[in-house]
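Hi support team,

I submitted a single chain yesterday and got back a structure, but I'm not sure I'm reading the token output correctly. Could someone confirm the output below corresponds to the sequence I sent? I've pasted both exactly as they appear in my results page.

Thanks,
R.
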Amino acid sequence: MIDPNFILLYVNSPETSAAFYADLLGHAPIEASPTFAMFALKSGVMLGLWSKHTVTPAATGNGGGELAFAVADNATVDSMHADWQARGLTIAQAPTQLDFGYTFVAQDPDSHRLRVFAPSGE
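Hi R., thanks for writing in. Yes, this is the structure output for that exact sequence:
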């Protein structure tokens, strides 16, 4: 059995996306160039931002992605929602209760979804 340890998002501008994620995550990328940026996350997973104009082989279609951030409780969801809204992130879904937990969804500069949720049964 293998577990993924890299997440790659194809982005229009790695420099713009790297600045966005550096602000959101609170730390700089460990690697950055005009075509690629890489963040080391506390979980050990690596987040790569690769220019959709230079990825090889070329990416086709308009597939989107979603990064999910599990948090401890509903209050943290509300706090992060207020913070991200104040930062000017596009909010695709206001905080709401769904079957898996309390959640909201924001978007990055390339419209990848950023879901924050507190799992049900907190």
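A quick pointer for reading it: The mean pLDDT is 91. Let us know if anything else looks off.

Best,
Support desk
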